[in-house]
Every structure is written in structure tokens, then in C-alpha cells.
Amino acid sequence: MIKNNPYKYTQDDVQFQTYLIKNQNEERNVDQVREQFFSKPKACFRASPLVKNYGWGFHYDDQGKVAIYDAESESYRQLLGRDDITKLKGMRSKRK
User: Fold this and answer.
1) Is 60 exceeded by the pLDDT of residue 96?
2) What is the pTM of this model?
3) Residue 18 to residue 38: CA distance in whole angstroms
4) Other C-beta atoms lying within 10 Å of the C-beta of residue 16
5) Buried b vs exposed e over 61-92: b needs ≥16 C-beta within 10 Å?
6) What φ, ψ does residue 59 adopt, rounded to 5°?
7) Best exposed site among 10, 21, 34, 39 by fewest CB in 10 Å?
8) Is the predicted pLDDT of residue 59 greater than 70, yes or no?
9) In the predicted model, what is the mean pLDDT of residues 20-45?
10) How far apart, in Å, are the Cα atoms of 18 and each of 1, 23, 34?
11) What are phi and psi of 67, to 5 degrees?
């Protein structure tokens, strides 16, 4: 979803669409389901296995839309080299 559509969706959009797909939810009142889904806090992508285990990095544009990059790619290295981007590490699973 993110890889094929960079900067099209926000983190919330991705999390909610993934929830709908995972639960095969075809409810008609999607707004109500979305409100209920976000009634509890959700972890950000920094806590995702995509970041922690599989070597992907996320980049957000000015509107909060997200793209995903292979951490070994040239595009990712270029983003890391930019001073105008705030860089945050992935979150650890356990405290040491």
C-alpha cells in the first residue's frame, strides 16, 4: 500500500486500511468504525517490524503523508544526508 503509493496516505490511513483488510470489515459506516478504531492510541511506524526487523525507513512529507524506503537504497541514503529532515530511530522492543 505504501510502497506502491508513496506520499498518498497518512500513517492513520494506512493503519486503518490495514485493520479493515485484516478483519475483512465491510461495514457501511466506515466513519464510525474509524472513530472506534482510533479511540485507543496506536503505535507509530517507528515501532513497526518493518523498521525494527526488516530494514525499511519511513519518510513523511509536509502534509504527513508517508513513503517507505529500503534502508540500503540510494534514495534512503540521500534522505539521511539532508539536514532539513528530522531523523528518528526505530523504537526498541525491550528496554535493556
Assistant:
1) no
2) 0.80
3) 13
4) 19
5) eeeebbbbbeeeeeebeeeeeeeeeeeeebee
6) -130, 135
7) 39
8) yes
9) 86
10) 9, 8, 12
11) -130, 155
For residue 40, how many C-alpha atoms fall within 13 Å in the half-sphere facing its CB? 2
- Number of residues written out for the chain: 96
Number of Cβ within a 10 Å radius of residue 42: 12
Q: What residues contact 80, with CB distance under 8 A and at least 6 apart?
A: 87
C-alpha cell at 77: 541514503
Residue with cell string 492513520: 12
- Cα Rg of the chain (Å, integer): 15
Query: Given the C-alpha cell 510502497, which residue does it identify?
Result: 3
Give every CB contact of residue 7 below 8 A, 6+ residues apart in sequence. 61, 65, 66, 67
